[in-house]
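Aggregate trends can hide what the representation actually does to any particular protein. For completeness, the protein is quoted in full, as a sequence line and a line of structure tokens.
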Amino acid sequence: MIITDANGTPLHEGDSVKLTKDLKVKGAGITLKRGTVVKNIRVTDRSEEIDCKIKKTSIVLRTAFVQKM
């Protein structure tokens, strides 16, 4: 299974990505700003989601809102 970012670039374990849109995180009460860099992502078994840690909080992000660095 190939997991790609918003531009179609393949993503792999440990890659760094940046957000392409401001995202409100439900339940955490925080807003992730556009351009925020997320390091060391983890690939999930769903092709449209990645797992990462932002501000010591584990979050699942949709690949449509990230761009590989």
User: Anything to note?
Assistant: Residues 38 and 48 are 16 Å apart (CA to CA). Residues 17-68 form a domain with the SH3 type barrels. fold (CATH 2.30.30.40).
